[in-house]
Amino acid sequence: MAEIPKVYNPSEIEPKWAQEWVEKRLFQAATDSDRPMFSLVIPPPNVTGSLHMGHMLEHTEIDILIRWKRMQGMNTLWLPGTDHAGIATQMVVEKQLAEQGLDRRKLGREAFEKKVWEWKEQSGDTIKKQMVRLGTSCDWSRERFTLDPGLSRAVREVFVRLYEKGLIYRGNYIVNWCPRCQTAISDLEVVHEEHLGNLFHIRYPVAGAEDAVSKEWVVVATTRPETMLGDTAVAVNPSDERYRKFHGRMARLPLMNREIPFITDELADPAFGTGVVKVTPAHDANDFQAGLRNDLPQINVMDESGKMNANAGAYAGLDRFEARSRVLADLKEQGLLEKIEPHTHARGHCQRCKTVVEPRLSTQWFVKVKPLAESAIRAVEDGRTRFLPDNWAKIYFDWMRNIHDWCISRQLWWGHRIPAWHCQACSHIIVAREEPGSCSHCHAGKLEQDPDVLDTWFSSALWPFSTLGWPERTKDLETFYPTSLMITGFDILFFWVARMMMMGVEFMGEAPFRTVYIHSLVRDAEKQKMSKTRGNVVNPLEVTEKYGTDAVRFTLAIMAAPGTDIALSEDRMASYRAFANKIWNAARFLSLSLEKSGAEPWTPPADGVCLPLSDSNGQMALEDRWIFSRLTRIAGEIGTAWEAFRFHEAAHLIYHFFWHEFCDWYLELKKLTFAPLQGPLPPAWENLCRAFDLSLRLLHPMMPFLTEELWQRLGPRQQSIALAPFPNYNPTMVDESAEKEMNLLQEIIGNIRNMRAEMRVDAKRKIPVELFAANGNVSRLSGQYSQAIERLANLSALQLVAEPLTAEGGAVRSLPEFAVKIALNDAVDVEAERNRLKKEEEKLQRDRNAVSARLQNQEFLSKAPKDVVESLRQRKEELDVKYSKVTETLRNLN
RNA sequence: GGGCGGUUAGCUCAGUUGGUUAGAGCACCUGCCUUACAAGCAGGGGGUCGCAGGUUCGAGCCCUGCACCGCCCACCA
Q1: Cis peptide bond upstream of A482, omega within 30
Q2: N or C: less crowded end of chain A, CB within 10 Å?
């Protein structure tokens, strides 16, 4: 093994391995494999920028599972790629153009698209580099982008098939319109925010009764008074007796001086406000429906930028909010503004730019989702796909069962152009996979493609099969679909997961994944959401540079308990950097010791399996028996944890195992056996190397770089640790008696250490200690391991005595299986020991009383399971023994 | 207006079907530079598990109510 530096420096080794893994195409999936398959498609990051901490968590979780499955011998596919993210990316590029004093309209559609492609190349490249640097084990030969030709073909295919099935339609409806982005957006892209606004009560005079004598009016309430300019009716509830007299009459619309009818419609709720409601079919979804029911005209009073248009009469040209103030001022002047009430209501904002969304009447393309949703619901109901944590299934169901049609057209330039062509001669619309030569209706030759593009999520919805080659029946599709797992964030459950479910079931006949795991949200150390505006964003590259990728990955893993958010702090990263350093130094120790021994370097077993080795007499040292027993148990527990996405548990297990078992005890005990050697390594050393090898494999899915580096240094290798078999649980390696004996040894040493500390024995001083063993096992063990006890408890001598120890002339600590004694002249602070014993005596007494009480409870004895009662009895016995020993020791000390 | 989650050590959080003595990291205290590691070693202190009831032989865990915090969904003007 080459010389290892004292301090672990991740930045020296990580880029090297990251590059090598990619170059060697280590993670390429096979289509001709007979091994079990595990596949997963990446939630494609947007090409709007670089990866953030949320991505890093997502990728860490995915990578841990993929690496683990791969090490278990499965044929794994992690398919990487990126999303064109229509509106978001277009905005980024438009912003850049604005900085140069340009805008997309000046540039023209074609030139603008070219600019966006340039951006995409750069951003996509950054993302890939970042992923490689973070060690993600993707199959880069299968990298995809949502606007790739193949994926675009899949989009057109799906569009046409849905259209032909009657599940895509075009029509004039109220949609959510962002006046800033100047496009329609879907319901999901509208975020509602509580807003303290006003409810304006406006008088609408009754036609024919405007004069001073018969003066009559009704009062309507609205939060958006400027829309009144487009009112085409006033509605009252048919059952509302108060307004019966107005049925069939007309109202005079103020400001516009237009007569509009009173209509009776359920739209009006007698209990709300005055029970009279203005009807504006072109600017409100409910009014729109009422308008259809009552055959009302639709008057659109705004343009696409939110400015009032010619239909708004005197207000034309004003911005909608300016128009609002002017309308109110004018109403007030005319005495028609009855009152203004403060009113809290939810207001819709554009998810991207936060502009207040305007309900707008326009012609758009829609997907009729109900039929698709039904099959997607069934797939989860009957367990073909399961959600974890399972509360997400409920949220999925709730949304799917109340789903509304999906507006899929966007008035943008960046995205998949809608595959529909408008005949310039007869206005016929042709939906087709490829551009038609002439109109199928009038046979004229002049056709123009619909200018709109599709909602980004339309193509994302196809991702699990479009990336595998659909609509071709490819080998990839056959091998890897349905995918085994989807790991993603809850924020795109509806946007993406739900829609993939619908499209997957519809076009593949099978849901796209067996399991959907919803991961945590990464917050900052103060539990605040990370956002650019808050300025609390942790940059993955920065922290990986500072603490090492493995440490950051480990931090994320150990904090990733299902269903809870992660409060990421640099303190934690620092502590897991220390863990990485610990592993590094264990390796360093091993390498230095091997070198010093003079023996031949270690050669890993050819079969790749590292079973423990007995000596020529068939014997194995206690520490070896113990560590392999612990190793196999931990391997099993880690697997169980990962199987259930309990990443935090797996991380805790390995952390504790490696640090507090492997290093603190195993290595310390091993030090005793080191002696000069020559020739091949004896079993004691062989086992040390093998146990370390296996430990590195357990660690590898979480800390790929460090483990690869050390594994390669540990012995000559043919391949990467990423392809080494993962040490699964092996019951034959469990050694209960070794575990028991080891526990005893640890207890003896621990008690002496504790005693020394309590009594303030100089830490540097080696002192003699007497030990009494209560039975043959203890006596044999302590005899055999007296050197270990001496070394680990810093003793000059461990003296085994045959008679029970008395506290005469010393301080004694008695436990059920053994007692230890320090001579008084070695103990500086006997008083401290006395106080400690008193405290312990009190506690033991309390515990005994509590346990006795329970054991005397007849109901407990009769109703509790036998094993519970039995273990409590045993506990009582233990407590009794401990108590009497403590009491006795204390008496002797006095 | 509906729905969901949280409240456990000074801080940040674990605690899978109710079962012996509630854990971790960081921070803190004491002592050690013991040649793998001071990013280390050894030892230690610290919790009425948000509040009030209930179910149970037994509750951090189950039920009810309350308080505070956070989130999601929603076409009531």
Answers
A1: yes
A2: C
Q: Average pLDDT of A856-872? A: 85
Token reading at A785: 């391991």
Statement: the CB of A630 is under 7 Å from strand B: no
Written as six digits, the tokens of A431 are 């939906």
Is nucleic acid strand B under 7 Å from A222's C-beta? yes
Judge if the beta carbon of A572 is closer than 7 A to nucleic acid strand B: yes
A450 touches strand B (CB under 7 A): no
Which nucleotide is closest to the Cα of A200 by its C1'?
B77
Of the candidates A186, A177, A196, the residue with the CA atom closest to the CA atom of residue A356: A177
Taking alpha carbons only, the member of A78, A66, A63, A79 closest to residue A148 is: A79
pLDDT band at A661; cut points 50, 70, 90: very high
Do A788 and A741 contact (CB within 8 A), yes or no? Answer: no
Structure confidence at residue A555 (pLDDT): 92
Angle at A765 between CA A763 and CA A769, to 5 degrees: 100
- DSSP-based three-state secondary structure for A533: coil
pLDDT given for residue A853 in this prediction:
82
**Whole-Å CA distances, A446 to A156, A413, A416:** 21, 22, 22
For residue A399, give the nucleotide whose C1' atom is nearest its CA.
B73
Q: Which nucleotide is closest to the Cα of A569 by its C1'?
A: B12
User: What letter represents residue A127's amino acid?
Assistant: I
pLDDT number for residue A842? 82
Taking C1' of B30 and every protein CA, the nearest residue is A757
The encoded tokens of residue A159 equal: 């569009």
| Selected residue with higher pLDDT from A240 and A522 | A240
**Is the distance between the Cβ of A570 and the closest atom of strand B smaller than 7 Å?**
no
| pLDDT score at A1 | 47
A854/B55 CA-to-C1' distance in Å: 19
Does the nearest atom of strand B lie within 7 Å of A848's Cβ? no
Query: Is the CB atom of residue A873 positioned under 7 angstroms from any atom of strand B?
Result: no
ipTM exceeding 0.85, yes/no:
yes
For residue range A613-635, list pLDDT tens digits in order: 888 888 999 999 999 999 999 99
Please give the Cα distance from A424 to A428 (Å, whole number). 8
Closest to A347 measured CA to CA, from A207, A205, A190, A134 = A190
- How many angstroms separate the CA of A743 from the C1' of B48? 34
User: What token pair was written down for A832?
Assistant: 């401290």
Q: Give the residue among A663, A670, A705, A664 at the shortest CA–CA distance from A685.
A: A670
In the 281-320 segment of chain A, residues within 7 Å (Cβ) of strand B are 284-286
Nucleotide nearest to A764 (CA to C1'): B32
Rounded to 5 degrees, φ, ψ at A192 are: -90, 135
Question: Residue A210 pLDDT > 80, yes or no?
Answer: no
pLDDT at A723: 95
Global pTM?
Answer: 0.93
Closest nt by CA–C1' to A656: B24
Which nucleotide lies at the shortest CA–C1' distance from A757? B43
User: Cα(A703)–Cα(A559) distance, rounded to whole angstroms?
Assistant: 15
Average pLDDT over residues A200-212: 83
The reply to whether A280 Cβ lies less than 7 angstroms from strand B is no
Helix intervals (H) in A799-865: 830-856, 858-863
DSSP state of A612: -
- Give residue A883's pLDDT band: very low, low, confident or very high (50, 70, 90): confident
Is A609 within 7 A of strand B by CB distance?
Answer: no
Q: Name A37's bridge partners.
A: A75
Strands A144-145 and A81-82, bridge-based pairing: parallel
Question: Any atom of strand B under 7 A from CB of A3?
Answer: no
As a whole number of angstroms, the distance between CA A608 and CA A570 comes to: 37
Q: Which of residues 382-441 of A touch strand B (CB under 7 A)?
A: 391, 394-395, 398-399, 402, 404
